[in-house]
Amino acid sequence: MKNIVLFLSAACLLSAPIFGQQQENRFAEITDPQLLSINKLPPHASFTSYIDETSALNKDKANGSFYLPLNGTWKFHYTEKFKERPMNFMEPDFNTADWKEIKVPGNWELQGFGDPIYVNVGYEFVSPGFDKYLQEPNPPMVPEAWNPTGTYRRDFALPANWKGKRIFLSADAVKGAAYFYLNGEFIGMSKAGKVPVQFDITPVVKPGENTLAVQMHRFSDANYFEGQDFWRLTGFERDVYLYAQPQTRIADFEAQTPLDSSFKNGVFKLDVKVQNDEVKARSISVSYRLIDHAEQTVAHGEKAIKLDKNSSQSVSFAETINDVKAWTAETPNLYTLLISTADETGKIEECIPSRIGFRTVEIKNKQLLVNGQPILVKGVNVHEHDPLTGHYITEETMLKDFELWKKYNVNTVRTCHYPQQKRFYELCDEYGFYVIDEANIETHGMGYSLQAGGSLGNNPLYLPAHLDRLKDMVERDKNHPSIITWSLGNEAGNGYCFYETYLWLKQRDPSRPVQYERAEHEWNTDIVCPMYISPKGIEAYALNPKSHRPLILCEYAHAMGNSLGNFQDYWDIIEKYDLLQGGCIWDWVDQGLEKTNEKGEKFWAYGGDYGDTGTPSDGDFCINGIVYPDRKIKPQTIEMGKVYQNIKFKNFDRTKGTIDVQNEFFFTDLDKYDFAYAVKGNGKVLKTGKFTVSLRPRQKCTVALSGLPNMDKETVDYQIEFEARQKKAEPFLPQGYVVAREQISVKPAIKPVAKPDQGVVAQTDNGDKTIFSGKNFSVTFDKNSGLITSYRYKGTEYILDGFGLRPAFWRAPLDNDYGYNSPKLLGKWKEASQQPPVARSFSIDKKENDNVRVVCRYLYPQTRSEWEISYTIFGNGVIKVDNTFEVSDLQAPMIPRVGLRMQLPDSFTRLEYYGRGPWENYIDRRTSCFIGRYEANIADLYEPYVRPQENNHRTDVSWFALTGKKNALLIVADSLLEFNVSNYPLESFDSGERRDDGRQRPENPQQRHNCDPKPAELVDLFIDYRMMGVGGDHSWGAQPHEEYQINLAPGKISYGFSLIPLDKNANFEKAIKQY
To answer: Among the options 124, 384, 491, 920, which is catalytic?
Structure first.
């Protein structure tokens, strides 16, 4: 009976007395894994029916289609308790006067009804030790007493001109087990989210006013399949609407559009399914017309058919179209397909438009090919997320994402881990993005065991649910050229169900590869698509002679917090081996929700910020985006765009004046771009020039540059920069937009020999203090601590409250640092940094030319290390600082940073420097940051990561200056150094021993957010030899790569710099040449 009910026809709508109508059976139904839906229409291609070709071409829904949107404000009743749900809510005369209102589409929990819950692997209804939750996963069971239930109602007026039509209700995504009623009659039920729920309501809908009621339960057995790493929310998540078609209608169609073996001609095949719901036989014609970009018809066909009453029939067309403009992500050429039906007089009854593209996807010679060419997947994983509306995404938000993808060279999107809304695919077709379309299947919370009680993917009882979800996706999305790969799901184990779904899909659509990460190296994946394999790991796969499939990382470069280190390293390996074809970064957008604290401050909330004690939570593990929740970019965004760019400049030959240009596109010539160079000396532009490149895809050439200046001054640091710009505007890319850029160091400067000042340095001893002074300056040392406690120049104090230079080894932990428990593993270095400065020795040496040398030593017994700092004080107030740091402990852990820290008054407000910039950069994330001369307000340097952590670092710095109201402090490196400068002290970013990642919300959660750090009345300065890298493989144990660590076990490093006090308007370059 259950399998029959699953496919009840509309004619049986009023005669289904068992399922869906008896409230006492409700809990049994929502926990019955065999009962997937009731009366839901079979899945079909997404389309809109129009009254004629003109309306179809113009997509005139308002006047040319039978379409009635039901989005808007609905009446709403909410209860946390399943048994307290309204029972007769569906009756037309039911009183809803005391009900509240809710916006549709929209999630309950973001409109004041229940709490958002974020968990990664687990289930939102499982929390051991708390009674209202299940104590462990137990499919298909969910909590009964606590099962929040929302009940919706709204009225609508059926347009008069819909009389005689077949009328359908569509909810394009429903999260929750939903029961639908119209005018008091049960019309159907659905459990699965992220795919359309459609019912034929013709037998129930009436002319004039109608009442639609829906009761939705937050938890059902379907939740076990929707355990994705995102916010667990409930409600109508996409559009809700009515549409109508003729009684004899187009029910489905499939357009197959490969290229022939020459990849020049299109092989067009069209299958149209026509359904006759009339009570009599019909004779109609079915026709199609294919129109190119120039609005010319390139193919057409028509066939007459006769349908019996209540029957369906398929009509097929085939045509070869010569010299088509093929579709790729680089060249998204689309054709408009019009499919029409007409009566015996030739009058059109309906017309359906679709945009199609000709392209072939295949795997040959161990590579994924599009139109015969191997491609590289420069991808991101994309969850549906909006900080205000949750899982309801407007077209405006989608277009913002598309714009950023184009600007930062993303060419592929993996729809993690469910199909996106239909408009998303239309836009991918139009603007050019490859799509890995993924079924809404993730049972990660059940683990991967193949034994009983383990993965649902190996349990035949759940095969119908696996197939149902896969078919919903494939049948809806089958006509989109942007979809080049199907994915069976995510993190749901492997086994019987996935063997069967793979076989079904390969038979259903042999035109696309199928991938599934948990298949790993088994046979039921055409692409090896692992997660979070390191660069060395993917290289090992490429070098393995047994590897016979392409490897594309379905997830990599886990971008949690301040991350995306070693991203260039990944691509150096990927581009080295044909077998490696890229991957999709995890993930696109930080999944923070906008929330306001008790002070009225807005911040981005994450797991643990909602609910009562015991609410399941995985903390800030949802904050993994390349962009912030509001789509503002991060430094990581720019790094991604630089690494993903498709034009390379290499091997500048200064003698010959040539540069090698490489076209990394697969389908694009470079003559669509303008090229230019700029020669810079010490950050200043010395010469610019233009050059022309006409280069076919995947080719390289050497270009001779004209007008290059001499680059032979020893004291000048020469750089040459190249860029490619849009000649003409394209969607999202305005004319002149820089699509690729590179900087190549020509010749580093030779630092001039310092000329010591001849002025006299006087010494005064005053108890524990020693003061050195000269013309316009004084320097005060504390003999016990060894610190400079005062540094004055022309009346300006450079040191705040005696906080002079002292060794620093710690940074505020990043999310990646917490992943390998850095506070515990590296905590000795935090202790060393916090150790009150006590000089082991303090000596003064009067040098020649009346200069003074002060030497201080610090010991750190917890790491068996020693720091010696030497200050040479010149007669003009310049202090030369030389450091030697030695570690003798063979077991000493790696060091987060090696540097010196001091604090200045907040009257120093401006930064200028020569190094990598202009945004923050780290030793393993700096490809996008060019050497240059940059300026900024210190107050603007803070990078507001959702959870506060280390930020705002700079590397490869030759010098930097801090400027105040009257004076400046110039720091000149002996060799390149690194620094941080901020109005926020390091401690304001340090979350302590652990980040907010508890499995349950504690009684007193200690959550930290981007609004918590507050600027202090100080300037916190770190002058570093080096800081270790941020890491980027993943966030649950991976450390920065060895080459980006600081390991001195044992070992010694030395570095030095000069502190130069100056007037505010001094010439920094002139001063640098002297010191």
So the answer is: 491
